[in-house]
Amino acid sequence: MLTVFAVDLATAAEAEPMPTLLTASDAVAGAAGRFLRGGEFKATLGETLLIHAPGGLRAERLLIVGLGKAKRLNPDQVRKGAGAAVRFAKPRGVRDLAIAFPEDKALSDEHLDDLPCEATARALVEGAELADPDYDTYKTDRKDKSIGSLAVVAADAERSVQEGIRVGFEEGRIVAAAQNFARSLVNEPGNVLTPTALGQRAAAMCAEVGLRSEVHSTEKIKELKMGAFWSVAQGSEEPPALIVMRYEPEDGAGSKEGAAAEGSPVIGLVGKGITFDTGGISIKPADGMEKMKYDMAGAGAMIGAMRAIAELKPKVRVIGIICSAENMPDGKAFKPGDVVTAMSGKTIEIVNTDAEGRLVLADGLHYAKTLGCTHLINAATLTGAIGVALGRLNAGLFSNDDATAERFEGALKTSGEKFWRLPCTDDYADQIKSSIADIQNTGITRYGGSITGAMFLKEFAGETPWIHLDIAGTAWDDEQKPWIAKGPTGIGVRSILEWVRSYSD
Ligand code: BES
Ligand code: ZN
Ligand code: ZN
Q: Cβ(70)–Cβ(12) under 8 Å?
């Protein structure tokens, strides 16, 4: 099936859409022209129009996919458009797809400037690959409808454009596979993906792509005096997992021994890996609790990012740390009122055992610093409040350093993911003051719950430039979109990867 993109060229003043094809091919224009003129296709984002046996073309089917308004054209529209093509093809049993690389003489240079060929090819392949999985792994009657082959057609393009497309295509394949890997982990039920199983899957991935990894459990967690991490883990029959993944560049400044001391950055990626969150003794209501299997989406994002890093080989050292446990109510479980001592030495009063993510991350962040990390990022499904604040479109971004946050925002231009920065200035520190310990694990009030969570983590990042991504509202999507299956989104993988690459020397 040949897929061609179309945009709506109408200006704001014009009421009627004006669809135009992003191809200079006369044959395609001939086959599709009268349908476009007929007004049945408006080129809205993800809209599809199928033409059977298109005259003058060798393909059996020609699919026109809308990319929305021409003036908003960017690689993210292309990502979604390519995804819509794949989602259209799959249920119809179409396994081989060729997508025409967007080009059109009808578009102004200004529009095409917004579609650099490498980034566009990468987004196109990402969109197509991300659209492929369906989360029906546990259905016994599932049929594999995966796409068999994907080609990008740019027959008339100049050599430099062809090369850009080739590079973008290869990158897109790697990035999307990493994100799909993260999504497959997030999809797994809690009885399958225990902390031990997460450790095994991470270690297998590391072996496959040439990363060093270690998976520790109770003994090491106690030896490191990770009292905050252990307090969460102690209530489960399932042992916790402390997963460490290391990426060292082959050459360049980032690879030198003692690089941190010489001023080269060492990036620490820390993920919340709660494989199931019952809330513990502060137990959650039954309604919707099944969703808490995805409370390891932060870990999934970091494991996915490490996989892409291993394959794209930036010149910067990266250490991935996953703190994985099950949060269960039990005779041995931690209780509200308990006081525990974190690895950093800070004492924490447990007010609510459901605020467990910040506890495991507190020790993960501190541990990352002891391993020499100079820059930290953590990802976590930390608070329900982030969905209340930002809805399901933007994830939360917090940082103790403006330059680091701006660098991350720069990475979003390539990733196409949406993160919105919220404050975590010291004015909010009162919220986590405890009368009995150094700090407490929930706020004195309910207001600004996501900020309170960030303030708690900030205590453990200290002076190290740090970013906190709260992905609780965006890690799982129950709404069907034309370009991607519902379920685990894999949010964070692409942005974390681009942020890391921005430190490559
Ligand atoms: N895992 C939850 C947060 C969450 C909520 C993730 C919805 C995904 C979807 C987290 O551990 C939690 O329970 N947080 C509490 C914090 C509160 C006790 C301060 C919350 O959001 O209610
Ligand atoms: Zn919780
Ligand atoms: Zn949780």
A: no
Which atom of ligand 1 is nearest the CA belonging to 452? 19
Q: Which of 294, 327, 382 to mutate to test the pocket of ligand 1 (most atoms within 8 A of CB)?
A: 382
User: How much distance in Å is there from the Cα of 354 to the middle of ligand 1?
Assistant: 7
Q: How far is the CA of 359 from the centre of ligand 3 (A)?
A: 10
State phi, psi for 287 to the nearest 5 degrees. -65, 115
Say if residues 384 and 449 touch (Cβ distance below 8 Å): yes
- Tokens representing 270 are 């820390």
In 3-state terms the chain splits into helix, strand, coil percentages (rounded to 5) of 40, 20, 40
Q: Is the dihedral of CA 122, 127, 128, 132 positive or negative?
A: positive
Ligand 1 interacting residues, C-beta cut-off 6 A: 277, 295, 352, 354-357, 381, 383-385, 442, 449, 472
Calculate how far, in angstroms, residue 289's C-alpha sits from the geometric centre of ligand 1.
11
| 365-380 pLDDT tens trace | 999 999 999 999 999 9
Q: Which parts of 145-246 fold into alpha helices (H)?
A: 159-187, 195-209, 218-223, 227-233
DSSP string across 234-252: TT-SSPPEEEEEEE--SSS
Specify the pTM: 0.96
Task: Please give the backbone phi and psi of residue 246, each rounded to the nearest 5 degrees, phi first.
Answer: -125, 130
Angle separating helix axes 195-209 and 159-187, nearest 10 degrees: 160
Digit-coded pLDDT (tens) for 190-246: 999 999 999 999 999 999 999 999 999 999 999 999 999 999 999 999 999 999 999
Q: Following CA atoms 74, 470, 397, 226 in sequence, which dihedral angle do they give, to the nearest 10 degrees?
A: -130
C-alpha to C-alpha distances, 164 to 16, 80, 91, 120, 218, nearest whole angstrom: 35, 20, 32, 9, 48
Instruction: Specify which residues 419 forms β-bridges with.
Output: 395
* Distance (Å, whole) CA 439 – CA 441: 7
For residue 97, what are the β-bridge partners? 150
